Model the fold of this input.
Amino acid sequence: MKVEKYRVPSKGKVSLKDYDPGESDLFDGNKKDGAEALVKLNKQIETLQEQLYAEGKHKLLIVLQATDTGGKDGTIRAVFEGVNPQGVKVASFKVPTAVELAHDYLWRIHAHVPGKGEIVIFNRSHYEDVLAVRVHNLVPEKVWSKRYEHINEFERILTDEGTTILKFFLHIDQEEQAERLLARIDDPTKQWKFSPGDLEERKLWKDYEAAFEDMVNKTSTDYAPWYVVPSNKKWYRNLVIAQIVRDALEGFKMGYPQPAENLEQYRKLLLGMVKPKVKQASEADAAKITVETAE
Done:
């Protein structure tokens, strides 16, 4: 799939209205075919993540932003299914604590960026400070409007220090959101995820849309690009993101570290340690056969 279609250019301006949240145009197949393709991508990501962790040279940061019910949790589960959690971390940024509010807004973010050999996924992120903060007028415009530049420079620091950054806006429409909220109410196992406040947030849809549009236009850079991913169809969303992640990992051109020298001598030593057990097992089997024959 030519997923670059969804990448927001670093220069110029895009409108979210130009992106159809319900499309699945890049994949020649149906939902079942997409699920099968995702399994293959999962296996590739699993192997590549293992190499990433073993090699310990590269760092990958994945940022997920969306409206309520946009599918951040589902994306993480689907794209990283089967991946060793030892080398993958998820950081969720909710309402700041009193301690966090006492510092600059990026203070709590920096502590969670990936180290060498790690993949870190931000489930919401520093972008909340130009989204929810803006929509709810938590700080004056003269304050939040400066943050686009701050964020670009923050991400430049990370990339200059070796972090690869991929940012995904999970794009759904209002009707799809309503259906997902209703599904939460109808499913006893998901009712806990529903909050009456979700309906209040829906009233601010146009404000959020404007904030998201400014976010992708002002902070999509060559070194930390945004992708506007059609997300009404969950299977297609997962497929697009999985391919972009797979491609990024392949781009690292990784391999496993060199093994210790003279492995054969250690192999012989270990064979010497296990052979007695093999011999004992063989003797035990022979004795059993003898007893059974005698009977």
User: Anything to note?
Assistant: The chain has two domains: 3-251, 263-295. The chain has a mean pLDDT of 93.
